[in-house]
Amino acid sequence: MTNRVVITGMGAVTPLGNSVNEFWEGLKVGKNGIGPITKFDATETGISVAGELKDFDPTNYMPRKIAKRMDEFSKYGVAAAVQAVEMSGIDTEKTDMDRFGVIVGSGIGGLNAMQEQIIKMHDKGPQRVAPLFVPMAIGNMVAGNISIAIGTKGINTSIVTACASGNNSIGEAYRNIKHGYSDVILAGGAEGTVDEIGISGFAALTALSTSTDPDRASIPFDKERTGFVMGEGAGVVMLESLDHALERKATIYGEIVGYGSTGDGYHMTAPTPDGSGAGKAMLNAMEEAGITPETVGYINAHGTSTPANDSAETMAIKYAFGEELAKKVAISSTKSMTGHLLGAAGAIEAIACIKALQEGFLPPTIGLKVQDEACELDYIPGVGRKTETKYALNNSLGFGGHNAVTCFKKWEGQ
Q: Which residues lie below 8 Å from residue 201, measured CB to CB, with a gap of 6+?
């Protein structure tokens, strides 16, 4: 016997707002969360814009003393997890905490702590390195800190698959509950890399947009795109077995029904040009869901706004759907509004899929004005669409050839 797995809570801190509601309302109206970099003087990097959080206060979610012991990515992850738990209405005193887990990943981890402490060691010597440097820097601590904050005692792990980390985490949590190892899991991703080394590192790869105009910087599938825009934040969903959710009379926001995870085996940073790696992940997710491509009404594309990614993902969708069906499915990249949250991207985009199904509204790709001939599919340019649909795919593709696809189903009762 296998369990059905439902979503009973969500939490998000994003460049569009520090709650699921603010994030979703921003997506619906096509709000651009990207702006000039304010966290440091980025002049020498050649990069001008990023998707920064606005007015984020970690003490809304944890004591100040605890927050000071965490790098930004952990603070963001804990904030999103606390929101998800609150939305779920779960009573931890009446829950078997040995079967309540956390699978939350990060693409890079505590980059701010690394940057700060390496400079301090260089300038002032090794004796001046902060005592908590290691637990602030290591990538697993977002999951560890969430587990401590909530009091979970079940599976507690982190997945690092670059920009697929958040989506892989949700997929692995789904399988864990589906096969009966857990009842409840907080799953998602967190990232805090808008700093000197994060921006400089991706700029050195020539992966970032050099545009100074926030409205022409993150422009997925646009012929004039030059690179992605760094974003920051976290997304966490609470996954729960259907039986467990019904038993406690939880509100159900959606269902996860499929997961595909593949490797390109091709290149460190470039996707397979024919799209076969990501295409197979989409096919695997649909196969597990027991559906055919005709049934999918929306795809939240990885859509980073880099020349290689967007054309390869277009090929991947054609690989999975066939030429004709690929032209009929509605697709958008919400990174046009948030920038690219790296390890957290797939998690906030899962929330976008769940809300799209729940409300019958498909968010747009806001920066898309000059459509690339190599990206000729229906990428919902400019303005979102009221469309009722039953199934949505969430695509995440990471450096190293990591492909993760989750399939969500609109909740219509049992």
A: none
Nearest by Cα to 71 from 87, 58, 88:
58
Rounded distance, CA 162 to CA 140, Å? Answer: 13
Q: Please tell me whether residues 46 and 161 are part of one structural domain.
A: yes
Q: Are residues 101 and 219 in the same domain?
A: yes
* Reported pTM: 0.98
Q: Which of 122, 179, 302, 407 is catalytic?
A: 302
Q: Are residues 368 and 219 in the same domain?
A: no
Same domain, 296 and 328: yes
The model's pLDDT over 170-181, given as tens digits with 9 standing for 90+, comes to 999 999 999 999
- Asked if 66 and 171 sit in the same domain, the reply is yes
Catalytic choice (122, 244, 340, 375): 340
Give the DSSP H or E segment for 409: strand 402-409
Give start and end residues of each alpha helix (H) in 193-275: 196-204, 242-247
Q: Is 353 a catalytic residue?
A: no
Is-catalytic flag, 163?
yes
Task: Please give the structure tokens belonging to residue 362.
Answer: 């498909």
Q: Which of 23, 43, 27, 49 is nearest to 217 (CA)?
A: 49
Q: pLDDT category, 338, cuts 50, 70, 90? A: very high
Quickly tell me which residue has 């990060």 as its tokens.
Answer: 106
Q: What is the mean pLDDT of residues 321-331?
A: 97
Domain final position from 247, 280, 311: 247
Q: Is residue 302 flagged as an active site residue?
A: yes
Q: Is pLDDT above 80 for 414? A: no
pLDDT value of position 185: 99
Among 247, 268, 287, which residue terminates a domain?
247
Report percent pLDDT > 70 for the chain. 100
Instruction: Report helix, strand or coil for 256.
Output: strand
Domain harbouring 101, CATH code: 3.40.47.10
Q: Give helix 307-321 / helix 276-289 axis angle, nearest 10°.
A: 40
Distance CA 48, CA 134 (A): 31
- Looking at the fold, whether 84 and 153 belong to one and the same domain comes out as yes
Amino acid (1-letter code) at residue 236: V
CA 255 to chain centre: 17
Q: At residue 314, does pLDDT exceed 90?
A: yes
241 and 109 co-located in one domain:
yes
Distances, alpha carbon 214 to alpha carbons 13, 22, 112, 228, in Å: 20, 20, 24, 11
